Amino acid sequence: MIRRNTNQSQIVYKSIELMGHTTSEKLIEYINSNYENISLATIYRNLSKLLDEGQIRKLRLGNDEIYETVKETHYHFKCQICGNIYDIEPKMISIPNIKEVDGNDVTNTDIMMEGICKNCKKIS
Ligand SMILES: [Zn+2]
Ligand SMILES: [Zn+2]
Predict the structure, then answer these.
(1) CB-based burial label for 120 (10 Å; 0-12, 13-18, 19+)
(2) Distance 76 CA to ligand 1 centre (A)
(3) CB distance 71 to 87 below 8 Å
(4) Domain 75-123 CATH assignment equals 3.30.1490
(5) Fold classified for 2-69
(6) Quick one: pLDDT band at residue 114, thresholds 50, 70, 90?
(7) What is the pTM of this model?
(8) Are 16 and 69 within 8 A, CB to CB?
(9) What is the distance in A from the centroid of ligand 1 to the CA of 100?
(10) How far is the CA of 83 from the centre of ligand 1 (A)?
């Protein structure tokens, strides 16, 4: 039983890793077409387990909740046309290293950009 749960959480983790960024709906679609017999409840249970363990994180991008595996600090760019989400490394953009704002200490910065991605620019 323990072994089975471990495998299922690995399937969920691997799927997120392969997809890069995914909503829970797309993740469920992906798992159901690549693996058999994993119920919705099991997928959701493993999502919250992986979140608790700090192996994945959940981002809010616009109206979507996006899951990704935990990687080095990075920001996000979402294409308004194809909906793809791109990881943006901090060194790609110049942002000031803000330590304090309006009397509050800053420990984490998140940046979310939207626009038209390089692939969609080529097509249009
Ligand atoms: Zn695009
Ligand atoms: Zn990301």
Answers:
(1) middle
(2) 13
(3) yes
(4) yes
(5) Arc Repressor Mutant, subunit A (1.10.10)
(6) very high
(7) 0.79
(8) yes
(9) 35
(10) 6
